[in-house]
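Supplementary notes for students who missed Thursday's class. We covered one full example, reproduced here. Read the sequence, then the structure, then the short commentary at the end.
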Amino acid sequence: MFRKIYDWVMRLAASRHAPVSLAAISFAESSFFPIPPDVMLAPMVLARRDKAFQYAAICTIASVFGGLLGYAIGVWLEPVGRTILKVFGHPEGPAEFQKWFDQWGLWVILIKGATPIPYKLVTITAGLARFDLFTFVWASILTRGFRFFAVASILKYAGPAMLKEFERRLNLYSVLLLVLLIGGILALKVFL
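Structure (token representation):
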């Protein structure tokens, strides 16, 4: 099963539609979609290492625009924003995140935007908290750009060796990734 999904993603990553798909996933992930763009970015860079930084730029730009949608959801569609936070395991999210923004402000965006924590939680709650929009935008560009260009750089320069190892042990790494993903979600529910 993992082999079929992997082969499909690798074919899509090498197709002419890959950049548009990457932009759509990056945009949607910043406001409502559950799958991070790294899932598409990684195979695209591995398939076309010469375009690694172009793909990172697509991710960054689309993610920031998607973040603006998330921010707008928090500002103008508060019930929708609260529902999205509940779906992602944060029923008390707005009050909790409001405290974070009150105490840490900019650092919430800078730290959470560069980590695997769903960015939509940051964008929506920044809107709910009415965080300064200008600061939100430049911090999002900085932190999302750092994340996607770091991923692209690592895969561009270390990718072929990593790809051979990954393909050789695809099932093992798929199970480990699934365990880490479930563990991360459970940790977020416990600690956030």
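Commentary. Residues 32 and 87 are 10 Å apart (CA to CA). The first helix runs from residue 2 to 14. If anything here is unclear, bring it to office hours.
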